[in-house]
């Protein structure tokens, strides 16, 4: 599953948000392993198209796509700058994530201490975000400096390592200028080589603004060029205690349609260039996740590796056709069911039935 590491300064509301995530109400409704790692919370990616499909096929269950959030404790100011650097466990946890989500404090509660800064303000999102980014950049510089001597030695023997060495050297300079690795211009080859350097700032970064309840519908200034996603951790914690009907009412009272966690899951999906295709049958209507640009066999492989290996073709109906024509039968009669081969590039919303050899 798509996984996102949650980081942030102390007292910004990470634990509050995470507790909401791992409570029953916040957990993906159909996730079969409810008691997995306590540092992992799973959220459904809401998709109205699932309901439209379900109306047509009346499945026993609906399974939305999910996003996994991982609580990455241990990032504090000076952690990388002083002493031994970030803990190995921290680095290991964060490296396994597909993206990083930084929680930034926007709520003003004077009763909650804030990591001291030069301004003494309770809220200073830009400075907090910069503090964390600096730690991540410093950690990456340390990671590279550890790898460089070995890489230099090996590159002398193995010419294929030359691009990796070159990009590592350029990255050290780039990071030392205070930039994130992901923003450096690289060729595709360099980018592939850079992946093997395990840098934190190569990962896409999302910002969550932990706001006061009355700021939930406000438009916030971008951080690092991206709009933060407003969430009130306290509200999420309360929502996670409610049953679905009560939760919907509570959200409506706040002028919202979805919980912050759901909005976050959707945003993460977009940020990472992911899209959904569907399978629809009496047993289940289900959303599956693929990269934009994935081929039909790759999509089949998301369901089962055997499907990819034995791929023959994909019987495909666009979501709009499927709904407008009342399902598979109607779409087929109208000539809207396509037989797609192994080179077909999946389109968002395709309703698919894979044919394969076992
Ligand atoms: P962490 O250190 O980032 O994990 O922060 P916590 O989740 O432990 O929150 C620190 C304190 O801030 C706790 O006392 C929370 O109750 C409080 N807090 C968290 N989110 C909010 C919020 O949205 N509004 C207000 N007023 N307080 C919050």
UniProtKB/TrEMBL annotation:
<feature type="coiled-coil region">
    <location>
        <begin position="134"/>
        <end position="161"/>
    </location>
</feature>
<dbReference type="GO" id="GO:0005525">
    <property type="term" value="F:GTP binding"/>
</dbReference>
<dbReference type="InterPro" id="IPR013029">
    <property type="entry name" value="YchF_C"/>
</dbReference>
<dbReference type="GO" id="GO:0005737">
    <property type="term" value="C:cytoplasm"/>
</dbReference>
<dbReference type="InterPro" id="IPR006073">
    <property type="entry name" value="GTP-bd"/>
</dbReference>
<dbReference type="InterPro" id="IPR004095">
    <property type="entry name" value="TGS"/>
</dbReference>
<dbReference type="Pfam" id="PF06071">
    <property type="entry name" value="YchF-GTPase_C"/>
</dbReference>
<keyword id="KW-0547">Nucleotide-binding</keyword>
<keyword id="KW-0175">Coiled coil</keyword>
<dbReference type="InterPro" id="IPR004396">
    <property type="entry name" value="ATPase_YchF/OLA1"/>
</dbReference>
<dbReference type="InterPro" id="IPR041706">
    <property type="entry name" value="YchF_N"/>
</dbReference>
<dbReference type="GO" id="GO:0043023">
    <property type="term" value="F:ribosomal large subunit binding"/>
</dbReference>
<dbReference type="InterPro" id="IPR027417">
    <property type="entry name" value="P-loop_NTPase"/>
</dbReference>
<feature type="domain" description="TGS">
    <location>
        <begin position="273"/>
        <end position="356"/>
    </location>
</feature>
<feature type="binding site">
    <location>
        <begin position="11"/>
        <end position="16"/>
    </location>
    <ligand>
        <name>ATP</name>
    </ligand>
</feature>
<comment type="function">
    <text>ATPase that binds to both the 70S ribosome and the 50S ribosomal subunit in a nucleotide-independent manner.</text>
</comment>
<dbReference type="GO" id="GO:0046872">
    <property type="term" value="F:metal ion binding"/>
</dbReference>
<keyword id="KW-0479">Metal-binding</keyword>
<dbReference type="GO" id="GO:0005524">
    <property type="term" value="F:ATP binding"/>
</dbReference>
<keyword id="KW-0067">ATP-binding</keyword>
<protein>
    <recommendedName>
        <fullName>Ribosome-binding ATPase YchF</fullName>
    </recommendedName>
</protein>
<dbReference type="InterPro" id="IPR031167">
    <property type="entry name" value="G_OBG"/>
</dbReference>
<keyword id="KW-0460">Magnesium</keyword>
<dbReference type="GO" id="GO:0016887">
    <property type="term" value="F:ATP hydrolysis activity"/>
</dbReference>
<dbReference type="InterPro" id="IPR023192">
    <property type="entry name" value="TGS-like_dom_sf"/>
</dbReference>
<dbReference type="Pfam" id="PF01926">
    <property type="entry name" value="MMR_HSR1"/>
</dbReference>
<dbReference type="InterPro" id="IPR012676">
    <property type="entry name" value="TGS-like"/>
</dbReference>
<dbReference type="InterPro" id="IPR012675">
    <property type="entry name" value="Beta-grasp_dom_sf"/>
</dbReference>
<comment type="similarity">
    <text>Belongs to the TRAFAC class OBG-HflX-like GTPase superfamily. OBG GTPase family. YchF/OLA1 subfamily.</text>
</comment>
<feature type="domain" description="OBG-type G">
    <location>
        <begin position="2"/>
        <end position="273"/>
    </location>
</feature>
